[in-house]
UniProtKB/TrEMBL annotation:
<keyword id="KW-0479">Metal-binding</keyword>
<dbReference type="InterPro" id="IPR011008">
    <property type="entry name" value="Dimeric_a/b-barrel"/>
</dbReference>
<feature type="domain" description="Dyp-type peroxidase N-terminal">
    <location>
        <begin position="60"/>
        <end position="215"/>
    </location>
</feature>
<keyword id="KW-0732">Signal</keyword>
<dbReference type="InterPro" id="IPR006314">
    <property type="entry name" value="Dyp_peroxidase"/>
</dbReference>
<keyword id="KW-0408">Iron</keyword>
<keyword id="KW-0575">Peroxidase</keyword>
<dbReference type="GO" id="GO:0016829">
    <property type="term" value="F:lyase activity"/>
</dbReference>
<dbReference type="InterPro" id="IPR048328">
    <property type="entry name" value="Dyp_perox_C"/>
</dbReference>
<dbReference type="Pfam" id="PF04261">
    <property type="entry name" value="Dyp_perox_N"/>
</dbReference>
<comment type="function">
    <text>Involved in the recovery of exogenous heme iron. Extracts iron from heme while preserving the protoporphyrin ring intact.</text>
</comment>
<protein>
    <recommendedName>
        <fullName>Deferrochelatase</fullName>
        <ecNumber>1.11.1.-</ecNumber>
    </recommendedName>
</protein>
<feature type="domain" description="Dyp-type peroxidase C-terminal">
    <location>
        <begin position="227"/>
        <end position="410"/>
    </location>
</feature>
<keyword id="KW-0456">Lyase</keyword>
<keyword id="KW-0349">Heme</keyword>
<comment type="similarity">
    <text>Belongs to the DyP-type peroxidase family.</text>
</comment>
<keyword id="KW-0560">Oxidoreductase</keyword>
Length: 423
């Protein structure tokens, strides 16, 4: 695959089974069923929620892929200081991901097919389950570009550390990370199984820093999807970038070779924020105030003063009393592209409920996920404006933050996640 492992003079047992899985199970025994599917360009839609999405392509799946219903997101710290071991791991992960996203087990011998005296190659909890639209998307955090692996000169300028935003209360233990993997699927067991097996493969080279489960997507990434609702009861992501917006995606989402560095061309930058909502306080707020805060009605999702969800926002429209329908500091106005040089984000966040505290209050909210071409020009100015002026701040608290450079897609079975970065 890459010349890097050859220079190291080593071939790990896990890499042997991983590359064997890609060569034998994907391109060999399963070639009739899986091989052609893996090599097709990414498709806009799977025919059902049980079907797989292609793994190989120009861009990573799980970005413009129609947002699935379930999420398991994980951030890893790299514990090895050996560059060759890290490259081996990325190759092994890629081979496993190619199998998992097609509904197969993570290793060539699977959960029950190997030596019964040895630990199985797969944990087995997804046996009998279909692919369920699983996508696996990897990203590299700013901390990976320190002095451990000789990557400092390859750190993209767009991967600049996020500033401190007013009011945020970040918890370091659930923020950051060297590497992230986003698993999205229509079945939560499939998503959890994928992350569990990647963590298992990575044992001794990475450790889990933090993870997050999510349900009920809070954005649509395709016009074929209905707009979902967040836990405040409002439709979320009405004007989100969609996979059908080809020109806007080239402009706002995909990194270009001219942006630098070359290894990120065709990739995108990911920002995550865990936003806890004070659900109980929000639930005691009047409907009128809730709608004024958002700038949309709660039922249809229409901009205030309009009738339909997708009616154009009109910030100049006024009520009979002369006041604007949409307040100057409403959420939709503060976040609107016209307030930020037409900057847009591709959002694919999820609701979360992590139990409750000792007083019975839900630990719940939004796990915000946004992809973009350059966070300095997109997420940062948008979030700074919201942090300073959004009336929603009375009801939310940002407790976790992540920033990652997601490389372009894996082209074929000879490629691996982040290959251009390490060559």
């Amino acid at each position: 695959m890459s010349s890097e492992p050859a220079r190291s003079g080593r071939l790990s047992r896990r890499r042997l089974f991983g590359l064997g899985a890609a060569g034998a199970a994907v391109a060999g025994a399963g070639a009739v069923a899986a091989g052609p599917l893996l090599r097709e360009p990414p498709v806009a839609h799977a025919s059902s929620t049980s079907d797989p999405y292609p793994f190989y392509g120009e861009h990573q799946a799980g970005i413009v892929t129609p947002a699935q219903d379930r999420l398991h997101f994980v951030a890893f710290d790299v514990t090895t200081r050996d560059r060759a071991e890290l490259v081996d791991l990325l190759q092994e992960w890629t081979a496993a991901a190619a199998r998992l996203t097609q509904g197969k087990e993570s290793g060539s011998f699977g959960a029950v097919g190997g030596d019964p005296a040895a630990a199985p190659d797969d944990t087995g909890e997804a046996l009998g389950l279909p692919a369920s639209g699983l996508t696996l998307t990897i990203g590299f955090g700013p901390s990976l570009f320190d002095d451990r692996f000789g990557l400092a000169a390859e750190r993209p300028a767009a991967l600049a550390d996020l500033p401190k935003f007013p009011g945020e209360q970040l918890i370091p233990e659930i923020s950051g990370g060297d590497i992230c993997v986003q698993a999205c699927a229509h079945d939560p067991q499939v998503a959890v199984h994928a992350i569990r097996n990647l963590a298992r493969i990575g044992f001794g080279r990475v450790s889990v820093r933090w993870s997050q489960l999510g349900f009920g997507r809070t954005s649509s990434t395709s016009r074929a999807q209905a707009t979902p609702r967040n836990l405040m009861g409002f439709k979320d992501g009405t004007n989100n970038l969609k996979l059908e917006d080809a020109a806007l995606l080239r402009q706002q989402l995909w990194a270009d070779a001219a942006d630098g560095p070359a290894w990120m061309a065709g990739g995108a930058y990911l920002v995550t924020r865990k936003i806890r909502m004070t659900i109980e306080t929000w639930d005691r707020t009047s409907l009128t105030e809730q709608e004024q805060i958002f700038g949309r009605d709660k039922g249809e999702g229409a901009p205030l003063g309009k009738k339909h969800e997708f009616d154009a926002l009109d910030f100049a429209a006024r009520r009979p009393d002369g006041q604007p329908y949409i307040a100057a500091r409403s959420h939709v106005r503060l976040a609107h592209p016209s307030s930020h040089g037409e900057a847009r984000l591709l959002r694919r966040g999820y609701n979360f409920v992590d139990g409750s505290d000792g007083l019975g209050r839900l630990d719940a909210g939004l796990f915000f996920i946004a992809y973009q071409r350059d966070p300095r020009k997109q997420f940062v100015p948008i979030q700074m404006e919201l942090a300073r002026h959004d009336p929603l701040n009375e009801y939310v608290k940002h407790v976790s933050s992540g920033l990652f450079a997601c490389p372009p897609g894996v082209r074929d079975a000879g490629d691996y996640w982040g290959r251009a970065l390490f060559e």
